[in-house]
Design brief:
- It is a single chain.
- It is built from nine helices and five strands; from the N terminus they run ααααααββββαααβ.
- The chain is mainly α.
- The strands form two sheets. It has a three-stranded antiparallel beta sheet with strand order 2-3-4. A two-stranded antiparallel sheet has the order 1-5.
- The longest helix is centred in the first third of the chain and has 22 residues, at 33-54.
- The relative contact order is 0.10.
């Protein structure tokens, strides 16, 4: 597809610059102010409403004026890397992470928004949890554990799962979390420790490998002083994770079908 004529490209840029920052960017000539005002309100209000719904803790934490300033700053200072509408929340999270001064009063806010966006991604994930070939009661040690394909893992400096607008955290607290969709379509959230998180990552990275082999990898990686105890505890832990739907069951060894 050919690029638009230079004059049209300039007009489009002036129009976009004005919509983002009308105070510092005059409107293109020849466009009725009434129509421009409609566009300005539509763009701003749509973003404000979308982010308010997707990031309710941030919206409730900031006053109306603070929220308006933050949305305007996003429009002026941020350049999205994707045109996909469902990914606009990721762009807001990236903006907060790259401009911490904008939320310096609430240093935990970027991580809370990331956690909420992660939950939204899991909710919208179309992965099939009833995939054929998964044995829900098989041997997690001798066969290959199947990780819930909607599972997302994250580590934070703040206890994001405990924060709300009325109870901001007093100090940082390293937190590892898992979020996933259950077979009944409900969202599951689970606080885990670093070792459990790494075990899940190894299972994700090595589909088709037995649970026992994955636990051996973990023991070597963390230099566990008693690999036998880790194997025993790890097998029990995998069974518990299966009961919570983080693991769906097993497949035969070597079968990495997703």
């Amino acid at each position: 597809m050919s690029a638009p004529p230079e004059s049209l490209a300039r007009l489009q840029k002036r129009f976009a610059d004005h919509i983002r920052d009308p105070v510092n960017n005059p409107a293109p000539e020849g466009i009725e102010e009434r129509r421009l005002a409609i566009y300005r309100r539509l763009f701003f209000n749509n973003l404000s409403s979308l982010f308010g719904v997707n990031f309710p803790i941030a919206r409730k934490t900031l006053s109306d004026e603070q929220w308006r300033r933050l949305i305007r700053a996003f429009m002026i200072e941020h350049r999205a890397t994707t045109p996909l509408f469902p990914e606009i929340g990721r762009e807001f999270v990236r903006f907060l992470s790259e401009h911490p001064a904008r939320v310096a009063e609430w240093p935990w806010l970027p991580e809370v928004c990331h956690w909420q966006f992660l939950t939204t991604r899991v909710r919208n994930d179309e992965a099939d949890l009833d995939a054929a070939g998964v044995d829900p009661t098989g041997d997690l040690s001798k066969d290959a554990p199947v990780v819930n394909p909607t599972l997302r893992l994250a580590q934070y400096q703040w206890p994001v799962d405990e924060i709300d607008a009325r109870h901001p955290p007093a100090q940082p607290s390293n937190t590892a979390l898992a979020v996933f969709r259950k077979p009944n379509d409900r969202i599951g959230r689970l606080k885990i420790n670093a070792v459990t998180g790494r075990m899940l990552e190894i299972l994700q990275e090595n589909p088709g490998t037995t649970g026992q082999e994955c636990l051996k990898m973990l023991a070597v990686e963390i230099r566990h002083p008693d690999p036998g105890a880790l194997m025993e505890h790890g097998t029990s832990l995998m069974a518990w994770l299966r009961s919570k739907s983080l693991l769906l069951g097993v497949r035969p060894v070597g079968d990495s079908t997703v």
